[in-house]
Write a structure and sequence with these properties.
single chain, about 400 residues, alpha/beta, FAD/NAD(P)-binding domain, 6-stranded mixed sheet, about 25% strand, globular
Length: about 400
């Protein structure tokens, strides 16, 4: 088949590689002249690592990332609010913290060897002939026809707006700023560590390995704040912020003190994508374009990787039927995490008292109850799924 993939993010590159390895002729269209990663670091779960294994890329990512064995979240008094351990799922289980640029490079470098054609500077703005789609770019260029078009252009997907105009994708009122720093003493090795001031302030440190340039071990630091306050943060003086952050989390002072200029930070905003069907004729949406949500459960990149591998495995000569089967299977997984993320997000990112009250009184004790730790570990690892996990994607 001749297939177009729109978007050079994690899901798009993974889909292009997976489909090309199945023998399809794949064209990857990217709006930027020079594709680049957006953001700082991310956490790959056993579910996402299983997808990378199917792409033949897991060893590279594991070697260049940092092993993470638990999630440790505490309030300002040091009280344990969130305690999730991979060993509660399997004794040898772990996640991998990785610099986004590292994952981008591994995926991008894997395209040419399998024959993916990459076209940059192509902003898709429309299409013709849904039965044999021809994509139209902003300059009036035509690309196609294709047997299948995969929209992997992110949570603010333009193709989604054309295909599913009634879809909703509002911005979450809270986002985060991210920056990378050196962890010279390995203080934060092995754990995604977070600190909470009720739910109005959340910050965290994620080990991400040495990064694409090598050198010292790095961590990604994030600070949660309302979207309306991001411009003020990124355009202001960090001295007062550093003093506040260090007072809240003295252990993180060696990390926080490295940030002298707001230019060190990048902003991250998130959308709650509610779309209904992910497909329209010979078009299908994957990744954040189909099921974007808040990052509270840390599953975004993992879900996109799984989408890519499962779509490639399911695609047969009957394209509409293949897409229907893909969507039914994936929605039993991604939809579950979307639901949980919507429920959990106000407990960790919100103003007022209700969210953290519910978290501290109900959620935290439940996670420590008999069987609760095992269930929490399944949520963390990305392996909780309604229905059967395809054999190729079993961690």
């Amino acid at each position: 088949m001749r297939i177009a993939v729109v978007g050079c993010g994690v899901a798009g590159m993974a889909a292009a590689r997976a489909l090309a390895r199945k023998g399809h002729a794949v064209v990857l269209l990217e709006a930027f002249q020079q594709p680049r990663p957006l953001g700082s670091g991310l956490l790959l779960q056993p579910s996402g690592l299983a997808a990378l294994r199917q792409l033949g890329l897991d060893a590279q990512v594991i070697e260049r990332g940092a092993r993470v064995e638990r999630l440790d979240g505490r309030d300002l008094r040091g009280r344990l609010i969130m305690d999730m351990r991979y060993a509660d799922w399997r004794p040898d289980a772990f996640g991998i913290g990785v610099h986004r640029a590292t994952l981008f490079d591994v995926l991008h470098d894997g395209l040419e060897p399998v024959g993916v054609e990459v076209r940059t500077g192509i902003e898709v703005t429309g299409f013709e002939d849904p039965a044999a789609p021809v994509l139209i770019d902003a300059a009036g260029g035509r690309h196609g026809p294709f047997d299948l078009v995969i929209a992997a252009d992110g949570s603010a997907s333009r193709l989604r707006d054309l295909l599913r105009p009634n879809a909703r994708a509002p911005l979450y009122p809270w986002g985060a700023v991210w920056a990378n720093a050196r962890d010279q003493d390995g203080t934060f090795a092995g754990s995604l560590s977070q600190r909470y001031d009720r739910a109005s302030t959340m910050m965290g440190v994620l080990p991400i390995g040495r990064g694409p340039a090598g050198g010292a071990e790095l961590v990604s630091f994030f600070w949660s704040l309302p979207v309306t306050q991001m411009d003020g943060f990124l355009g202001g003086d960090l001295s007062e912020w550093r003093a506040r952050a260090v007072a809240m989390w003295p252990q993180a002072a060696p990390i926080i003190e490295q940030f002298q200029d707001p230019a060190a930070f990048s902003r991250a905003t998130y959308r709650d994508v509610q779309i209904g069907r992910w497909s329209q004729g010979r078009f299908v949406l994957i990744g954040d374009a189909a099921h974007g949500t808040s990052p509270q459960l840390g599953q975004g990149a993992n879900m996109g990787l799984i989408d890519a591998v499962e779509l490639a495995d399911r695609l047969g000569d009957d394209i509409p039927r293949s897409i229907r089967g893909f969507q039914a299977s994936r929605r039993r997984h991604a939809g579950l995490y979307q639901f949980m993320s919507r429920w959990l997000t106000p407990m960790f990112q919100s103003g007022g008292w209700l969210g953290p009250f519910v978290r501290d009184v109900f959620f935290t004790p439940m996670s420590k109850a008999p069987g609760g730790r095992q269930m929490a570990a399944r949520v963390l690892t990305g392996t909780l799924r309604l229905g059967r996990t395809p054999k190729a994607l079993r961690p």
